[in-house]
Amino acid sequence: MKKLLMFGWLLLCTVSSAFAQTHIVKGKVTDAATGEPLVMVSVQLKGTTTGTQTDAAGNFSINVPHPQGVLTFTYMGYEALARNIEGNTSLSIAMTKDNKQLDEVVVIGYGEVKKRDLTGSVVSVKGAELKKVPATNVMESVQGKLPGVDITKSSGASGAKINVTVRGNRSIRADNGPLYIVDGVQYQNIQDINPGDIQSMEVLKDASSTAIYGSRGANGVIIITTRKGATGKPKVNLNTYVGSNEVAGYPSMMTGPQYVALKREAYHTTGRWNTEADDALIFNAAEVNAIQNNLWTNYADLLIHKGLQQDYQVGVTGGSDKTKVYFSLDYFDEKGLFKLDRTRRYSARLNIDQTISSILKVGMQSQLTYYDQDARRDPLNQANKIVPLNGPYDADGNFVLFPNNGSAINPLADEQPNIYQNNSRITRTFINAYVELTPLKGLSLRSNLGVTLDNARQGIFAAKNSIDRSTASTSRSQYNTGAQRYLSWENVANYSHQFGHHTIGITGVASLLSDQRDSGFLQGEGQLLPSQLYYALANSVSGIAVRTNYLSSKLISFTGRVNYNYKGKYLLSLTGRSDGSSKLAPGNKWAFFPSAALAWRISDESFMHGQSVFSDLKLRASYGVAGNDAVSPYSTASYLSKIPFSYDDTNAALAYAIGSQIGNKNLKWELSATTDIGLDFSILNGRVGANIDYYDTHTKDLLLQRTLPSSSGVSTVIQNIGKTRNRGIEIGMNTTNISTGKFTWTSNIVFSKNKEEIVALADASTNDVANGWFIGYPVKVYYDYQKLGIWQTDEATEAAKFGYKAGDIKVKDLNGDGALNSQDRKVLGKQVPAWSGGFNNDIRFAHFDLNIYVFARIGQYIYSEYAAKFDPQGLENSAPLDYWTPEHASNEYPRPNASVSKDGTPFIKTLGYKDGSFVKIRNISLGYTLPAGALKAVHLSNVRVYVTGKNLFTFSKVKDYDPERGGDLSNPLTKMYVAGLNVEF
User: Which part of the chain is the TonB-dependent receptor-like beta-barrel domain (predicted)?
Assistant: First the structure.
């Protein structure tokens, strides 16, 4: 029996050993072009977890359970490869470099080029990246992700404006915002475009790239291409999210006891208050009662609520070989932090491309957008200054219009029924139709006709018990209307031809742009019924006013561009554009804007084939001139204004005088010349890629509004005076930190540093102190006395030399003349950052994806309304500040003094200047994509659910406040928590 068991055991081991035998496959992996071995290539047996990597010589060895199967080879920067084993024990693998990224098509002005053939400074962002940060305005979602582009949010109100500048402020008075091109046509209202409709976004920054847009591209160009239809079975995309908004940080004013202590100290300074028995001398009866019963209110807490943001979008893509259609509908709704603050946007988009024949194609891109927006007059200014004693309601819960029996109205007044309404309704229709003819190989002729129709009306009603009308005896109603018709007609010819190693592309453009606007303003006071709001203004009893306005301008342009390519290594681009603007003076209406750019693809040279450091290397250089005509139409003409005139005590007559601004018959173009040197490279087989640019922009003949002496009889004139300069460096870097079968981690790093300065104003050495413009400094700076602290008791003798005493603000005597006057002021700080940057991380593991995005803006100064919220008399509330008293030697704020008003306190403005640098975690998103196999049964191709935290944490020296928007206390910025769903079927 034992022998039988032993035999069985040996037999089992033999069989098991037979099944356990493995097949060893060895081989070598090399570069298909150079033959060089590739190190750490991932070798995987398909459908299993069995895998290995190549060694320093490119060799590998892998044990597989069967001589049949498939090995997959993956390596960063190379195309993935699969090879059947088919019983082989030795394999020779040659991998080809993956040039998909370089072959990506990038949209430029009036055309497209491969990324490898770019000669200018252009950043491209795909639609998937734009949807990572839920936002009202698509530009907010790329904040900190575009080198050289500074993006900030103006406020936390619903539908708030986004501020965008490209490579600094060139102009002092004229607009510095970029030109937006949507599907080839200028479109000013970028907030209308839903991120789900965007295929790609390109940012053109250097003069070579923007010169083809001439005067319109002086401040950079942002090109948006919306989604198009596609051949095949229709696809439906459903994107929706819901998010809860809350204030990102808001500092508190003084509590009731803190305010009482301040006011007591203010009157203690004058000798009127000594003990609590003297409270009746400085507080009214209602306030004394509130003090005794500890009744006080933080009005900001009552005004600020949680908001709500939601978006629902459906898009349909489909078509045949000849007809391609994209259609989408979108509903966006945002409730702000305040009651009466809400924005609703309804939009529809229809893009059609129709092939008529082999040489004729027509199409249309169209969008209809409708806004229904309720805006709130900022209540926080009133909430922050009203005396906090007592409360907004009496003991019976009735609303109290004037708490404390004073003249300050209740900050909650506008929220009461039939008191306040500010409603805007805007309808914008955008249609861009085109005809494209390709009569010969390489030649295309295209005509675009774009029309934007913008109609808006705003109605404002403020009852006599509203914040705005608290000192008036009647209500006021306003009814504002506006209409714009923007017409763009452009005819574009493109020709490309390749002969031998030479490739040439020629573009010609002729365009006409027409902008017509009219507006109306109606006002009346004393509406009969509050329910009439801003209607039936003819029934108003007083204050009836009527104004209308009309503006019209045209721009005619002729453009030519030549792109030359030799062997794909040597690239040349030459552009010339001539613009004629109706806004400028006769004889100066036309200007010519040239540019040139060169690029050398060093990595394609034969001497680079043997190296393994750079997988791509390109050097770029460009120079170009762009213009700006960003002044109001008719700035060259003087105008008349009606003035009251009476030639005796009883008789009056109509009279007119020259308006406050006199026309300038010599007005001409503002010109900006930019030099750009750039380097594009990737190393470690594409694992690290970077774009580095240095630029230098000189702007002259600034369109500047100049103040004239009163003896001239007019106030201002717009002239071509002054110069500015912007120079800086931009770095954009993409890295693949980890890449395995299931786990990838990629990063995007952006760094921008811009030095902005005024070079000359009326002359090369004279500052304009009245307007705050200083040669050698940026356009926007803070100019004031330098605060050193507070004069202390032991410094009383020294303070007296300057005419001050202990407890007063101490500032620096800059010129050392023993006196403190306007000559001791200096530039304290600039409102633009010294540098800004972003750090974006995308992590994927199996079906999960994680995005963490950090944004920084360093070196900027802000004027903090909170830091300056100090009333030395105690007439209004203040921030809980560390003020000086004889018993408390503070160096922060002066001694309260009931005999000195806030405006009369020496150097009071110096209290508000603060370092506004910040770092914030802009976005954290976690998503899960359902496995494809689980979706087949319900006929879905993709389902992704995600949660996002937006603007979650801000790190700065400014406590309880997000300094991104500056130092204003109105409409604070928000943070948002979002849950979203993406479905495709």
Answer: 390-952
Average pLDDT of the segment spanning 919-936? 89
CA dihedral 383, 389, 391, 396 (to 10 degrees): -160
| Burial of 182 from C-beta contacts in 10 A (0-12 / 13-18 / 19+) | buried
Spell out the residues 6+ positions from residue 529 whose beta carbon is closer than 8 angstroms to its own.
none
Instruction: Please determine, for residue 20, whether its predicted confidence score (pLDDT) is greater than 70.
Output: no
Task: Look at residue 18 and tell me whether its pLDDT is greater than 70.
Answer: no
Residues 6+ apart with CB under 8 A from 520: 479, 480, 481, 482, 546, 547, 548, 549
Number of Cβ within 10 Å of residue 667's Cβ equals: 24
CA-CA distance, 353 to 339, in Å (whole number)? 45
What is the residue-wise DSSP string for 645-710?
EESSSS-EEEEEEE-SEE--TT---EEEEEEEEEEEEEETTTTEEEEEEEEEEEEES-EEEEE--G
The CA distance from 422 to 341, in Å, is 9
DSSP 3-state helix, strand, coil percentages of the chain (rounded to 5)? Answer: 15, 50, 35
**Predicted pLDDT of residue 944:** 93
How far is it, in rounded angstroms, from Cα 123 to Cα 858? 23
CB-CB neighbours of 275 under 10 Å: 8
Which residues make Cβ contacts (< 8 Å) with residue 308, sequence separation at least 6? 242, 243, 244, 245, 333, 334, 335
Amino acid at 428: R
Percentage of the residues of the chain whose pLDDT score is greater than 90:
61
- Give pairs for 599-604: CB < 8 Å, separation 24+: 599/117, 599/118, 599/119, 599/570, 599/571, 599/572, 600/569, 600/570, 600/571, 601/116, 601/568, 601/569, 601/570, 601/571, 603/681, 604/567, 604/568, 604/569
Can you tell me the distance from the alpha carbon of 368 to that of 190, in angstroms, rounded to the nearest whole number?
Answer: 13
> Mind listing the pLDDT tens digit for each residue in 305-358?
999 999 999 999 999 989 999 999 999 999 999 999 999 999 999 999 999 999
Provide the β-strand partners of residue 457.
425, 481
> Which tokens sit at 39?
């190190």
Per-residue pLDDT tens for 885-908? Answer: 999 999 999 999 999 999 999 999
Nearest to 976 by CA among 335, 305, 248, 312: 248
Q: Report how far residue 725's alpha carbon sits from residue 705's, in angstroms, rounded to the nearest whole number.
A: 19
Contact (Cβ atoms closer than 8 angstroms) between residue 624 and residue 207: yes
- Asked if residue 437 has pLDDT above 50, the reply is yes
Tens digits of residue pLDDT in 165-224: 998 888 887 778 888 989 888 888 889 998 889 988 888 888 878 888 877 778 888 989
Quote the radius of gyration of the chain (alpha carbons, Å). 34
Q: What are phi and psi of 484, to 5 degrees?
A: -135, 140
Spatial separation of the C-alpha atoms in residues 17 and 30, rounded to whole Å: 36
- Do strands 542-566 and 502-525 pair parallel, antiparallel, or not at all (unpaired)? antiparallel
φ, ψ of residue 115 to 5 degrees: the values are -60, -35
Integer CA distances (angstroms), 494 to 450, 525, 556, 576, 766, in order: 19, 60, 20, 15, 49
Nearest of 553, 552, 551, 547 to residue 481 by alpha carbon: 547
3-class secondary structure per residue, 269-312: HHCCCCCHHHHHHHCCHHHHHHHHCCCECCHHHHHCCCEEEEEE
Contact (Cβ atoms closer than 8 angstroms) between residue 776 and residue 748 = no
Angle in degrees, CA 445, 451, 452, rounded to 5 = 145
Could you tell me the sign of the dihedral formed by the alpha carbons of 191, 195, 200, 203, in that order?
A: positive
Determine the number of helices (DSSP H) and then strands (DSSP E) in the chain.
10, 49
> In this model, does residue 748 exceed pLDDT 90?
yes
Going from the N-terminus, what domains does the chain have, and what CATH number goes with each? 23-95 (2.60.40.1120), 105-233 (2.170.130.10)
The amino acid sitting at 756 is E
Give pLDDT, residue 102. 60
